[in-house]
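Why predict the complex rather than its parts? Because the way molecules touch one another can change local conformation, and only a joint prediction can capture that. The input here totals 1355 residues.
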Amino acid sequence: MWPRSGRNSLARHINGRFMNSIRFAVLLLATLSVSPTLADELTPEQLSFFETKIRPVLIRECYGCHSNKSGNVRGGLRLDSKELMLIGGATGPAIVPGNLEDSWLYNAITHQDYVMPPKRKLPQSVIDDFRTWIEMGAPDPRVNTITKINSKITKEDIQRAKDNFWAYQKPLKNTPPVVKDANWPRSEVDRFVLAKLEQSELKPAADAEPWKVLRRLTFDLVGLPPTPDEVSSFASAWKRSPERAIASVVDRLLESDQYGERWGRHWLDVARYGESTGREVNMTYPQAWRYRDYVVDSFNDDKPFDRFIQEQIAGDLLPVKTDEQWTENLIATTFLAIGSKNLNEQNRVQFAANVVDEQIDATTRVFLGMSVACARCHDHKFDAIPQADYYAMAGIFQSMQTYFGNPQSTEYGSYSGAQEKQTSTLLILPTDDPNSFDARYSPTELQEIKDEMVSKRREMAESRRSGGNSGANAQRQRIVFQNTMAKLSAKLASVNENGRPLTFSMGVQERDKPSNAKILVRGEIDQPAQTVARGFPQVITDGPTGIRSKSSGRLELARWIGSDDNPLTARVMVNRIWLHMIGNGIVTSTENFGTTGQTPSHPELLDHLAVRFMESGWSVKSVVREIATSRVYRMASTFNEQHHEHDPDNALVWRANPRRLDAEAIRDAMLSISGEIDLDRPRASVVAQAGFTRVQNGQLESPMPGMGGARPEAGQQGRPQQGRLQPAGQRRPGGRPRGPTGRPGGPMGGPRGPGGRVQNPLDMENAKFRSVYLPIVRDEEPRSLDVFDLADSSTITGQRELSNTANQSLYMMNNPLVQQQSEAFARRLASSSSRVSEQIEQAFLLTYGRPPTTGERAATSAFIRQFSPSTAYRDREAATMTALCQSLFASAEFRYID
Amino acid sequence: MFSRRQILQSASAGFGYLAFAGISSAQAAEEASRDPLAAKDPHFEPRAKRVIFLCMGGGPSHVDTFDYKPELNRDHGKPGRYGGSLLKSPWDFRQRGESGLWISDLFPEVAGMADDLTLVRSMQCDQPVHAGAMTQIHTGTAQFIRPSLGAWTLYGLGTENDSLPGFVSLSPPSGSSRNYGSAFLPSIFGGTKIGRASRGGQQRSRGGASESVPDIRNRSLTADQQRTQLNLIQALNREKVRRDQYQPGVEGIIESYELAFRMQDAMPALMDTSEETEATLDMYGVDGGPTDGFGKQCLLARRFAEAGVRFIEVTHQGWDQHSNLSVDHKARAEACDRPIAGLLKDLKQRDMLKDTLVIWGGEFGRTPAAQGGDGRNHNNKGYTTWMAGGGVKGGFSYGATDEHGYEAVENKCHIHDWHATILHLLGLDHEQLTYRYAGRDFRLTDVHGNVAKDILA
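Output of the joint prediction:
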């Protein structure tokens, strides 16, 4: 891609007083913003110029290989219509009206990077004609005949779906049903569940033992095990009143900072959180962690969920009073920017269409449980979503620009590395919150960078002017130039004029002018049909959307999704909460509330929770509390053969589902039980420290020599140093500071672990902070999480898989993290008591939340008798206890909540 | 076959579980001898003993590889049946081998093995999108979570090497575990993931010992110590199963520990390819070039097959060319053509091809009409897979699509038929291979499936 300059200071009107602090970068979608009037109304002179000087040349010289009729289109490029020319081929648009530098056709006929026609150069007069034509805006009468797509889904079909399909009706407040066993229910939730059980002549399981209930509560609400002290005080409180015991624990847990780390991670699963692009060229997202922290804080603050939605979809458009609030809102829009991306996509228009598609998919499935993206190529096959509804939303999203890459625009233009075919810059945040490892430059250094950029540009210009240097050599030279400039540009763009690091975020911004999208026949970018007005899916909207012509409609969309009138939003979220606490969704297809999804097992209960959710002011904590304090929640998981025959999936909730802990809880519980856990939030992420770079084979590395500079000088090139991440010393934008700074910690260990084993730096086996803060690089997730079914970070994951595999067994038996934690656990036990029997007692209390049974005591004694003689006398006790502690971590009960 | 209860009981039999379960001693002795992974007799004489499934993710284009369509050349540029204009293949087709099968220049090396292939040119599935179609090719349905083909095979036949998983999936893409899972079958029948897609190419030297099985060795305990430790773990686990009565997850954990313990010795030896000759490595294209990654996977597949593993899946991703077909399809094919041909030759020279069924195929094919000039869209109504060895005819073509390759029209082979045929080659009757779950007998082919008898050698 040729560096594009001169577009880096587009004035914006979001919020005038912050304007000076923001530098805006090139339009990613230069080709889409071309004003149609340029070509729509041709003057007779323009027409004649095209017909006499341009069209004949195109036909004679180009159509042979580059037209619809020519068969296999070379480089995917077709030149036989205006639209196709603007779309271009593998390299980029053939023509960018008014812009010679970006017009690949001009590049090729002047024999710069490409040489066209292949065998000879066109006469200079013809080249001059093309130059004139492009500069006058490339007026082109060859307009495609616009196909009109007629939807097979009629207004009546949509109305019928609205009238009849359960999910499109607003949730109603239902009176809880009367139940026969009136003594059992403690809450309305209980009555809904019990009524269904009674209909099927099933009985709810008895209450679980108190220690089990507490273990369940603590893992479900904060993702950690209860301490033995908590277990015993809960047990005595339970004797007085189970209800009060539970209520007070729930209050305590909801108030703790660990709650947001647990529930924020659930949200990160559906938000497809990842710290890199994934796909073919896996480039890091060094600023993604800001969104992670934002999500954790939002759950801790119990931010009203409707507000949370609005911030993520349209945070950049919400009115704000302070810079801090504005910062928070901008970070929230990372939701739209963080999807996985194929940076290798050659065609910019295609890339942009794919980004929009991903945004539509995420927005509709995550918030609405609706897959509108199914209608990209044709009407939805099963739901009443015509293709036009998709493009109504595409108009909204194409009217914004997505920022996910690296700072790259400076007064010298915008540069990106030759390998990144599709790039973007980042948002600069209005508050000052850089990382301590971010680069800073002295005035001299700044001047050196600038001088070098100027001299490189001059060199390049001279080399171009001198000509004669074409073909492969010139191309190589240009790549070197581009990479050098990208490196320098990234340095310069990442600091302010005094060399102090700026603070960046991913996110979105509105374009100057909103535009409507055209329906694309079969979703193909070169097959546009009629234009559709920006709007929302009709089947869940009543009346007009209220989108004004000057507004993209994104803010309206965000407000409509997060509104009490939306039939889906509240239901979708309470269903997620129910899933995380009960183990099954009321609707088991958590992202699909459409006709191909599953119908709710308890429709009235779903509505009840949804209405309560909205009435509480969209408080997630209040729904969690309502479920946690129900009797349903404290049922035992006791098996019942007849009930199982009747309802093998436990859809009616006749018992508690035995659930395997998720990946984060397993790791965090080991750290917690060993006493080694560091509950302070680490600053940023190891990915932020590595900067903008390519990830391959588990290594954060530079895509090629000379490209490392995309990362500000962090002290070393190549691999990131695995030091402890910096503690958050500074004001955290958008919320109260979270905890004191960390204890002084040693380095986390180099890339080589015990026994010379090559470690993957992204596994971070020596880190002690909570799992939610481990780096989540797409396709390179840490082993400790990956092995226990971490959500695939490239896809929206409402419900994780819960497997039991030999790989997990190997991990538990042999992984250094497990071994280290077992050692620490044994040390902790040794310091608590010198008697082995007491140590064992304590070990079971810590891992299982209960003392050992007689059988377990016998098994551990037998183990000690057999194992201990095999160890060296010197550290016999420690070695034996370590092996015993590891056995407890490895055992099934540790990883199950029953 | 076995009842759920029998399987569960036998699954945990090794360490005195039955004593806990309170089963009579005679019965216990009989049950204890039955390892769930022990080799079992098929329903009838099998043609193949094991399967290597070369799974092509993304949907390779049949009309550019194995489904020769002269009419597509002839009608190039004309409107396609569902819009777009027909696009002739950028690659020439030629007749290959004695049999004269038409195969394109995308697969010159595989084409050299034409006389060992049965092309199934009339494939169909119900799903037009990747995830759904991929799940259907593996489990028969995209709608429900069901056991995968490999899990059914292992359930039906057991395995011949109890120190290795009976079903392995080499470097599967992330998020695809449903495609090699056991669903309601006991989890020991599920596929074990070996290596990660993203880290597949990290083996450093040619044919050297690989590190792609993490945590395969314990560095602080001796084998005896670890066995002692494992006995404690299993004692705790069995206590739990006993208390819980019915707990398939925990039963799965018990089985997985025993397998993992044995794998510690067997896996490193299996993954160590340093003893392979230069000639063998060359045959697979393990030479540091574009074929290196997939070549290693295919070589490992052969080693797993040799070691007695029942079902081996190898994935080759990236066939989804909506655009840039002419360049990217070629690159994809180049990366796997030589390794696949190498695998077939190697199996043949070791006399293993006769009882190893090699399957090649993607989740669907691609449209004869162009998408954006140099691309093709998904096509699930007609596409090609092929089989080799394991009792199928060589140099044979089964079924056909219409003149342009849109839809199967002759001897249609739906995924259910394909599954039925594969099971048949393994000596399993797809209607008899059932598993009772929640009061109902389930099978891989649900209520469908016809064996494509014509392809049997």
